[in-house]
Design goal:
Layout: E1 9-13, H1 21-31, E2 35-36, E3 39-40, E4 42-46, H2 52-57, H3 60-63, H4 77-90, H5 103-110, H6 114-130, H7 138-147
Helix pairs in contact: 4-5, 5-6, 5-7, 6-7
């Protein structure tokens, strides 16, 4: 129905590194065989941890089907600041509650990894809200990391 209306389906599989064995990858590959008017019926995006790339590289039938492979590198301080600002803007924030001086601490605690940044910021925002703090400084991130994230961020 979508193809007839000129729409192209995009299927996103997050945590694709957790797919269970070659059978799961084979089933997905077979889905990619479907075409409409000599064009692929869908685009498949596999998102996952870095361990996904070696899994795919061991399957030649996937290697030849991939259009793009992308590995996100950890953010540096400027990238961390931009990422946090973007996420807050998309969430509707008019201004960032994260003080600029806190960014180096945030980047260091998370090693610039987006998932870790998300988790630590979520927790710090929650604590800041509970404490009625309008802004978050480095101490907030250090405290949250130390007290609420006693185990590794991942």
């Amino acid at each position: 129905d979508n193809a007839e209306k000129g729409r192209h389906a995009v299927v996103v599989i997050d945590e694709a590194h957790l797919l269970d064995g070659p059978e799961a990858f084979e089933a997905l590959r077979l889905l990619l065989n479907f075409e409409f008017d000599n064009s692929p019926a869908m685009t498949l995006i596999l998102a996952g941890q870095p361990s996904l790339l070696p899994m795919i590289n061991r399957m030649p039938q996937w290697e030849e089907r991939l259009s793009v492979k992308c590995l996100l590198k950890p953010f540096d301080q400027a990238g961390t600041a931009g990422y946090v600002d973007h996420r807050l803007r998309v969430a509707g924030a008019e201004r960032s509650p994260v003080e600029p001086d806190a960014v180096p601490t945030l980047q260091e605690l998370t090693q610039g990894i987006a998932r870790r940044i998300n988790r630590l910021c979520d927790l710090a925002l929650l604590v800041g809200y509970a404490e009625e703090q309008p802004t978050l400084d480095a101490r907030h991130f250090e405290s949250v990391s130390r007290e609420l994230v006693a185990v590794a961020l991942d």
